[in-house]
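Contributing new complexes? Match this layout with zinc ion.
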Amino acid sequence: MNKSLLFFCFLFPGVLQAQVTFNPNDLNTIANGERKSHEQSFRHGHAITTSAFDVKFYRCYWIIDPALRQIAGNVTVYFKPMQAGFDSLVLDMHQALTVEQVIYHQHSISSWSHTADLLTVRFVSNLPQNVIDSVTVVYQGVPPDDGFGTFVQDQHNGNPILWTLSEPYGASNWWPCKNGLTDKADSVDITISTPNPNKTATNGMLVSTSSLGGNTEFHWKHSYPIAAYLVGIAVTNYASFTQKVPFGNDTLKVVNFVYPEDSTNAVAQLPAIIPMIQVYDSLFGIYPFQREKYGHAQFSWGGGMEHQTMTFVANFEFELIAHELGHMWFGDKVTCGSWTDIWLNEGFATYLSGLIYEHLDPSLWVRFRMVRVQSITSMPGGSVYCNDTTNIDRIFDGRLSYAKGAMILHQLRWIMGDSVFFAALNNYLKDYRLAYGFARTEDLKTHLENSYGHDLGWYFNDWFTGEGYPQYRINWSQTADTVAFTVSQTQSSPGVSFFELPIQLLFKNSGHDTLIRFNNTFSGELFKVRIPFPVDSLIFDPQYQIISSNNTVNAVAEHGLQAGLQLVPNPAKDHVTFRFGDLTAGERGNIRIYDDYGRKRDEVFPGHGQSEFDLDTHAYPSGLYFYVFSIRDNTYSGKFIISK
Ligand SMILES: [Zn+2]
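Output block (do not edit by hand):
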């Protein structure tokens, strides 16, 4: 324990026993909140993905009065031409913004055009390849507002607030930038001038403040690679307080900007962030921006937005802050390289919030998965792969990108085992081609396969691009200490013929239970397991390890056996003999045989008064079969096993 921790504990005595709360509604509120926020930025926006230049650094100076919905200032873009013959720089910049000047090498130049949301700056001669150069764009304007807006002016408790939220396409609505998912700036420097007594919250560290008339200039620096959509600013009369998280011999500051009227809530709820950071540090490596800080800034719409090192949140709900913090590793350090792969951000952040329950209050961990499975299986289809990136509801679909994305990660862990799974994720986060850059689903798959040592193409076909989920039927019976059961599967949606997953079953009676995992590789598969106590119930997947629904478990009744009917041998191979005992009483009955799917396989009519009947089962595949023996008005049923 070091000095700063003591200091922290003094301020927040509850820190080390943060209250864990579970709200099943969080499932929808986080996704809906993020979607609602993102909707603002969707109508407009451009996203160039050119490889003609590499964006290196943005220096931004903005004048923001939160009482006014407008922006004025300048952005200097440092860039490196990546090809010969580079004679113009093209940036994303919405038409609603007015370019006042373009400055190149200290001179205002006129060789630029601003059309179709693109600012094109032409140079007199080709710029040398691989030499960093810069252009300053002086501009002002009212960023587009079509009822959603990426650039929102609002009020809290009568005080004005202005905040931005650019994901997925909205950054260029309010500043000139390279807006696609291919190129992060190495760093960004943001100065915001605003009337007193407002404060500003943005990426990186506040390095200085200076007074200028009735304004204060807040100068922030962020020295990590950053995607344009992860730059965010918020300005209002914030109250602020700082927490400290010990890690190793160091500490990480968490800087919180909250509404003065909500600061009591914030001080009560935000200590929960401390053990969360420690859990993620231990699972995924130290907080990715540890040279700087983490922070929260309160804003007025939606659940939260993971602006790099400065998450914007509507409130301080436990699962929301866990989710947004998780994005620092998955979303911000490694960013989805296409909106089709949004689950690399959202599925992971959702799963990470589940891991917080696992580590801080395991009793809520199964419930977290149950709620996700119930959401996923509330509709029969839908893929994690986002097949329409022009549809905001589809990108930020809570059921698919969030819940199903999280559960397909959990299933991978269930298949591969903890150590292999977490090793793969750590390798993914550390991969120099991905870390502080972008990743596609294929990159994640490669790391999972390398760690696991087996191909996972089948898994991604079934669960990433594939749709639907399995529905299981279990038929079981116990003879002495052996429980035999068959596992049959149908699918909720056509396209996947069989979901190959390990399954878990709980065998129990009032005094005993045992949880066993089985590798189920085909539908109708027969399993036999020794259970040394009489089982009175069998529960399928009680811990929600997999995505499934509408499952049925049937104990096979043995009325025939109870009435004196015998089947030998059982399990059988190529024949099974029915011994009727007194049941025939000189009359003729019939025997119907059904397979495990309930399909009639055979119907035979033993002769009058015959005391036994030999059924030829040469052609029967291994599995569980049911018989119904009818005679007079009585029927006797039961099961037998063919095992070859
Ligand atoms: Zn998220």
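Reviewers usually confirm one structural detail per submission. For this one: Residues 1-18, 40-44 have pLDDT under 50 and may be disordered.
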